[in-house]
Amino acid sequence: MAPKGTGNGFTATRTAIGLIRTGAKEATLRAVDRLSVLGLSFLALAMIGAIFLITDVLVGGVVATVATVAIGAVFAWVWFGQPLLRLRD
């Protein structure tokens, strides 16, 4: 008898092996890539929102907006700009 909770791991492994054998590996990797970029985008938005909330409470509206835009630009460059430049090379 398998330990409780291992059924999902075995099912996921069988599903992954089945996808590789059927030739769906490329489509799966493209989907994973898109979903990871979408997840990073939402994470960046949540972090930027938290930064704006904290700086707005601490220092006020205009400074908070400027700081949030600057940090948002840094996130965009580090998480998306640099990897896209690497892909071009």
What does this protein look like?
The protein is mainly alpha-helical and about 90 residues long. It has one domain (about 5-89). Helix content is about 90%, strand content about 0%. The longest helix has about 35 residues, at about 25-60. The termini are far apart. The mean pLDDT is about 80.
Distance between the termini: 52 Å
Largest sheet: none
Q: Could you list the spans in which at least 5 consecutive residues all have pLDDT below 50?
A: none
Shape: elongated
Specify Rg, calculated over alpha carbons.
20 Å
Helix content: over 70%
- The percent range for strand residues is under 5%
Global mean pLDDT: 82
Could you state the order of secondary-structure elements as H and E? HHH
Compact description:
With 89 residues, this protein is mostly helical. It contains three helices and no strands.
What structural keywords apply?
mainly alpha, single chain, 0% strand, elongated, 3 helices, 89 residues
Itemize the secondary structure elements and their pairings:
Blueprint: H1 7-21, H2 25-59, H3 61-88
